[in-house]
Design goal:
The protein is built from no helices and four strands. Helix content is 0%, strand content 30%. It is globular. A four-stranded antiparallel β-sheet has the order 1-2-3-4, with no helix packed on it.
């Protein structure tokens, strides 16, 4: 019989074009706009520089926040 343990479950986030997102921490940290999504990649645009990057789908949902400034000025 299995022993019950605390398990953290992650699910890929279902990105949608037009979303304003913030990644906290890591090399991709910052504010982004989702401009394209495929089964394997997400394309993000920096709202400050306008540069776009396509990355393998990587992020997982943590929380929604209402009333957050975007892009954030740090």
């Amino acid at each position: 019989m299995p022993i019950e343990k605390r398990v953290t479950v992650f699910r890929p986030y279902p990105f949608e074009p037009g979303q304003k997102i913030r990644i906290e921490g890591g090399p991709r940290g910052g504010d982004w706009e989702v401009v394209g999504v495929t089964d394997t990649q997400v394309r993000l645009r920096c709202p400050v520089s306008g540069r776009e990057f396509a990355w393998a789908r990587f992020a997982y949902f943590v929380e929604d926040r209402a009333g957050e400034p975007w892009p954030r000025e740090d």
